Amino acid sequence: FHDKAIVGLLPPQLLFLSITFYEDKNFQGRRYECDSNCSDFHTYLSRCNSIRVEGGAWVVYERPNYMGYQYVLTRGEYPEFRGWMGLNDRLSSCKIIHFLYEKVDFGGQEVEAAEDCPSIMDRFHLREINSCKVLDGSWVFYELANYRGLQYFVAKGEYRNPSEWGAVVGLITNQDPQIKC
């Protein structure tokens, strides 16, 4: 049973993941809407002075390709860049984020997964995931490889151990959030 579990996320269209960037304060001016990871949106906007997050938890970056200063945003409205503690009005890329933990009660190594990852073990050198934080949206954990077997629906919330999402064990060896740029 130790190598049978993987985790995946429901497709973005079912989760309603959405972040909108506005050039001007108070959600005015040109805007750029995003529902998945985006490595470079600065060609669409010359600056970013306000953001509306309608779904998901996001990390936004000052420069393209997920570089520079970064800010974590959850559902809500940010009418000016100081609202997300921004140093200036420059943002150029964004990723959806998910938090997984090696041990129960959010202990051990914390993994911030923000893109497709076919193997937690290969990518993060972890064999176990025993707790998680779903900041927004929903996940589906699968019992067997290739998204087969029992499924566990995990809604927004904090799960201190596998039994809180209905599982007997917490081994999760693969992750595929099914979110494409």
From TrEMBL:
From what superkingdom does this record's organism come?
A: Eukaryota
Q: Which GO terms describe its molecular function?
A: structural constituent of eye lens
Name the UniProt key words of this record, in alphabetical order: Eye lens protein, Repeat
One GO biological-process annotation of the entry reads: visual perception
SMART domains named in the record: XTALbg
Under InterPro entries, the record lists:
Beta/Gamma-Crystallin (IPR050252), Beta/gamma_crystallin (IPR001064), G_crystallin-like (IPR011024)
Q: What PROSITE patterns does the entry give?
A: CRYSTALLIN_BETA_GAMMA (PS50915)
Q: Where is the Beta/gamma crystallin 'Greek key' domain?
A: 17-55, 56-98, 137-181
Which family does the entry's similarity section mention?
A: Belongs to the beta/gamma-crystallin family.
Q: Which PANTHER family match?
A: BETA/GAMMA CRYSTALLIN (PTHR11818), GAMMA-CRYSTALLIN S (PTHR11818:SF6)
Cited function: Crystallins are the dominant structural components of the vertebrate eye lens.
**Protein's recorded name:** Crystallin, gamma S1
Q: Which organism is it from?
A: Oryzias sinensis
Organismal lineage: Eukaryota, Metazoa, Chordata, Craniata, Vertebrata
